[in-house]
Amino acid sequence: MPPAHTDPAAAARKPARRRKPATVADAGEPATATLRPISAWPVRERPRERLQQKGAGALTDAELLAILIGHGTRGVDAVSVSRTLLSTAGSLGNLLSGEVELPHVNGVGPVKRARLVAALELARRTIGEGLEARPAIYCVEDCFDFLKARLRHLKTEAIGCIFLDARSRVIAFDILAQGTIDAATLFPRQLVMACIRHHASAVILAHNHPSGDATPSEEDALMTGTMRESLAMLDVELIDHVVVGAKEPVSMAERGLI
Asked: Running DSSP on this structure, what letter comes out for residue 99?
């Protein structure tokens, strides 16, 4: 039989094929992170249940954030929202830094943002407690984790100081100067006044290099010498000057620069 002629008007009335809705998995995410809510996932894959069964260490950064967030938004689960949050911030470290504002992400409204800010601040304070709980700082490595948490992810240079008593116990930590992307200025009188205020017997200076390279510069060495001379008049010892970069901090004392 000859082929039937197609009626153009009828073809125009024909409904268009519905396109399959995109899922987060289409964007390169694991197959479990689809449009389904987490409650529809297999129990063994749900972040909260995995936390209870295997402990927090078994979860990814995004899964831990998802537990804090609680739930996602229409069509996107909480884990996917958390991945977007981490991707937009650049890293978990950027979120932990008090200098970086939480990025605006769909599904993270005022209540969730407040919950995250509170949790991140608690994490920073926990690290601080770890330093203050030490009976004494016997070597500069004792304070590396603390200094990394406080300085590593700042986008501009900042100079901080750990104040110690006569038994090398921590009295306080202060940020004494904040500058630009590649420089910060601390005047000797600022450090001297802070030592008097805290009744410090010794100090550990620290500053960050936003470039990520923790190699001390010539300016760092000159500033360290000036501060050491100023503190000597108060009989306050400058134990070390630590430079914080993207990897492990650098001790200027260990490099013979003090």
From this structure: T
Q: What is the pLDDT along the chain (258 residues), one digit of tens a residue?
A: 555 555 555 544 555 555 444 333 333 334 444 456 777 788 778 888 888 888 888 888 888 888 888 877 777 888 888 888 888 877 776 666 544 566 677 777 777 777 777 877 777 677 666 565 555 787 888 888 889 888 887 889 999 999 999 988 889 899 999 999 889 999 999 999 999 999 999 999 999 999 999 999 999 999 999 999 999 999 999 999 999 998 899 999 999 998
With residue 204 as reference, give the H or E element that holds it.
strand 202-208
Token pair, residue 17, equals: 């094929």
Tokens of 230: 């100023």
Q: Name residue 164's beta-bridge partners.
A: 170, 202
Q: Which two tokens stand for residue 110?
A: 């005022």
Closest C-alpha among 180, 172, 159, 152 to residue 223: 159
Neighbours of 173 (CB within 10 A): 19
Give the side-chain half-sphere CA count within 13 A for 153. Answer: 18
Residue 162, helix vs strand vs coil: strand
d(CA 24, CA 36): 10
Q: Are 32 and 50 in contact (CB under 8 A)?
A: no
- Let me know: does 216 contact 207? Beta carbons within 8 Å: no
**CA 191 from centre of chain:** 27
Residue 198: what are its φ and ψ, rounded to 5°? -95, -5
One-letter identity of residue 33: A
pTM above 0.85, yes or no: no
